[in-house]
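ok, trying the design again with the full structure, not the truncated one.
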């Protein structure tokens, strides 16, 4: 059982949250928010953390262990169909930037205790929107606001309305990196420079040359650094040894296959001249 003292919180505007013991730590809502009829309507929300994903590939990134705090803000649908925050301690709505608006912040010790957040004395026969926000230990918002929301219609019932509250962590654009080392061994005296190019393969054949991927190196070689690579894609690095006139003396290629991991093994391209047998 989580110690209730850990969850006693004071909302903006001075309204205290009273914690009551059930299966876990449960927080009550604004005692001043009453229904259109005399009714003690209770809404219980159980935050459910959904890990972040790479946008182009299904690879977990942010997880529940990255969440330090979850803030939940209830909003009431007005007669005009607009959701507005609730003023702490009253039944009135207010603006989103009002420091006295009602919200609840729960630390990570309460998120995984099996309990739920409880708002009491809500309006009966009303529609609420509950907006969740996950914060990291540094205070950075790491949840997706558009996906971390629950619209809930509260009925006229003595039994609590219980519902899962999605807390969807942000996704991050997939961008893999790779390095290709260009070597020339004991370069031929005819080597004046080395030119490299990166192309994307489609169906096993070169399709698109990546913008800005052409580089030049000295005859001794160098390293090609690839970044912002897409998942489930194969890239071909082409290296050409050129003479003073720009004629191609030797060519080597290597394919870089990117699957669903942003870290791709390095590779080597060898332009060493083929020496005649002795």
């Amino acid at each position: 059982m989580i110690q209730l003292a850990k969850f006693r919180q004071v909302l903006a505007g001075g309204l205290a949250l009273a914690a009551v013991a059930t299966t876990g730590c449960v927080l009550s809502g604004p005692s001043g928010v009453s229904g259109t009829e005399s009714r003690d309507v209770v809404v219980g929300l159980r935050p459910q953390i959904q890990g972040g994903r790479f946008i182009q590939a299904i690879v977990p990134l942010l997880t529940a262990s990255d969440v330090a705090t979850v803030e939940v803000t209830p909003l009431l649908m007005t007669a005009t169909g607009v959701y507005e925050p609730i003023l702490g301690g009253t039944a009135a709505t207010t603006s989103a930037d009002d420091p006295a608006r009602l919200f609840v912040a729960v630390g990570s010790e309460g998120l995984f205790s099996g309990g739920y957040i409880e708002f009491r004395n809500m309006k009966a026969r009303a529609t609420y929107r509950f907006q969740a926000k996950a914060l990291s230990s540094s205070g950075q918002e790491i949840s997706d606001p558009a996906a971390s929301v629950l619209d809930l219609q509260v009925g006229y019932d003595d039994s609590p309305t219980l519902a899962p509250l999605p807390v969807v962590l942000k996704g991050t654009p997939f961008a893999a990196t790779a390095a290709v080392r260009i070597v020339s061994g004991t370069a031929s005296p005819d080597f004046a420079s080395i030119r490299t190019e990166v192309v994307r393969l489609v169906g096993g054949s070169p399709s698109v040359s990546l913008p800005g991927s052409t580089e030049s190196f000295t005859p001794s070689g160098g390293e090609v650094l690839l970044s912002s690579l897409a998942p489930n894609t194969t890239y071909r690095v082409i290296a050409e040894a050129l003479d003073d006139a720009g004629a191609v003396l030797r060519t080597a290629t290597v394919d870089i296959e990117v699957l669903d991991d942003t870290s791709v093994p390095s590779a080597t391209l060898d332009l060493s001249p083929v020496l005649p047998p002795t």
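Keeping the full-length input from now on. Residues 108 and 226 are 38 Å apart (CA to CA).
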